Amino acid sequence: NLTELADIIDDALDAACARNHFPRPNIALEPGRAIVARAGVTLYRVLSIKHIDGGRTYVTVDGGMGDNARVALYGANYEVVIANRHPCGPQMTATVAGRYCEAGDVLATDIRLPADLRPGEVLAVPCTGAYHHSLASSYNSVGRPPIIAVRDGRARQLIRRETTDDLLARDIGN
């Protein structure tokens, strides 16, 4: 509740300034996650599924630590669900890994996904609106993904996908 939070901060600031005979400063608070986190959903296409005998199942997707650094940087936890169909059958426990082939390129562990998941299907990672895109990088020279707004069944592009030409535009050569 942003109004309640603002009142608490305002009261505490007033009291501290009065107690310390300090002039009341103007403050601004950037509430980031409270405003946009739930609004963002990241979609990934399944590239491959690898079942290790007696071990884990890895689902590799077309993104990863380059577009979602929060898992590697601070251990953020995300849910992952299949987005292109409603699963009805058996499930498996899987680790969703990125495309970058790095030890830290894991988007989620111990996620329940359909046992019949196939390459080409779409996985959704909800609650990625805050910081997800702003922390994205062109890691391994992979361009950043687009941002698409969806409302009332209509989609519009807000930020276009970064292209190879975009990545090479900064290269001044010899």
Plain-language structure description:
The chain is built from 4 helices and 8 strands, in the order ααββαββββββα. By secondary structure, the protein is of the alpha+beta class. The protein has a 6-stranded mixed sheet, with no helix packed on it. A two-stranded antiparallel ribbon has the order 7-8. β7 and β8 form a beta hairpin. The longest helix is centred in the N-terminal third of the chain and has 18 residues. The N and C termini lie far apart (55 Å). The mean pLDDT is 90.
Short description:
The chain is of the alpha+beta class and 174 residues long. It has helices at 2-19, 33-36, 70-74, 164-168; strands at residues 41-51, 57-61, 81-82, 91-97, 106-114, 122-126, 147-151, 154-159.
Brief descriptors of the model:
globular, 8 strands, alpha+beta, 174 residues, 18% helix
Radius of gyration: 21 Å
Write the H/E string, N to C: HHEEHEEEEEEH
Count of DSSP-assigned helices: 4
Principal-axes geometry comes out as globular
Reported for the largest beta sheet, the result is: 6 strands, mixed
Q: Mean pLDDT, as a whole number?
A: 90
Number of strands: 8
**Structural class, please?**
alpha+beta
Strand order of the largest sheet: 3-6-1-2-4-5
Helix fraction, binned, reads 10-25%
Strand percentage lies at: 25-35%
Which segments are poorly predicted (pLDDT under 50) over 5 or more consecutive residues?
none
State the separation between the terminal residues, measured CA to CA.
55 Å
